[in-house]
Amino acid sequence: MKNLKTVVFTVAIMAMATISSYAQSAGEVKKEKFMLIFRGGDTHPQNANSKEAKAYIQSWMTWMQGLGQNGILVGGESLQRTGKQVSGKNKVVTDGAFIIAKEMVNGYLIINAIDISEAVEISKGCPIFQENGKVEVRPVQKLEN
Fold first, then answer.
1. Are the CB atoms for 116 and 48 separated by under 8 Å?
2. Strands 84-87 and 73-78
3. Helices in 30-142 by DSSP H: which ranges?
4. Which domain, by its residues, includes 43?
5. Which terminus, N or C, of the chain has the lesser number of Cβ atoms within 10 Å?
């Protein structure tokens, strides 16, 4: 059941990204890409079992659907809560890609925005703030040829 929730969440994000890509190619103003990195929050698709948790996940789906319909959402994924971290010259491997749970990266979205100010405003609609989470807003680096 946990894996099914993650798959449904991922498929929904990718479907919304397709809508976003179509809207962008339909003649909208050229925008820059920004990454929204989500940290903290207690509810995750893997543990959304209660009625309240399911409503919270639905609020994410509704928010992302709105981003997709408005040509803002490019793509994204929810991340599992497990992982490894490789560090330093000696490439030391440790369990977990986080120090404390509230700083764990739970997922990300790539969005279109005119500038970082608009990207920050878009991020303020994120449901993660209902659980006192954080959103880091970062411009995607363009690679010059």
1. no
2. unpaired
3. 51-69, 116-123
4. 2-139
5. C
Whether 145 maps to a domain, the answer reads no
Report the 10 Å Cβ neighbour count for 11: 10
Average confidence score pLDDT of the chain: 81
Q: What is the dihedral of CA 132, 15, 143, 106, to 10 degrees?
A: 30
Calpha distance 28→49 (Å, rounded): 40
Paired with 32 in beta bridges are 113
pTM of the predicted model, to two decimals? 0.74
Give the angle subtended at the CA of 15 by the CAs of 14 and 21, to the nearest 5°: 85
Do the domain assignments include residue 144? no
Q: How far is CA 133 from the centre of its chain?
A: 12
pLDDT at 47 over 60: yes
User: 79 versus 4: which is more confidently predicted?
Assistant: 79
CA–CA dist 144, 117 (Å, integer) = 24
Using CA atoms, how far apart are residues 60 and 58, in angstroms rounded to an integer?
Answer: 5
Output the six-digit token pair for 46. Answer: 């893997």
- Asked if residues 16 and 77 have their Cβ atoms less than 8 Å apart, the reply is no
Structural domains counted in the chain: 1
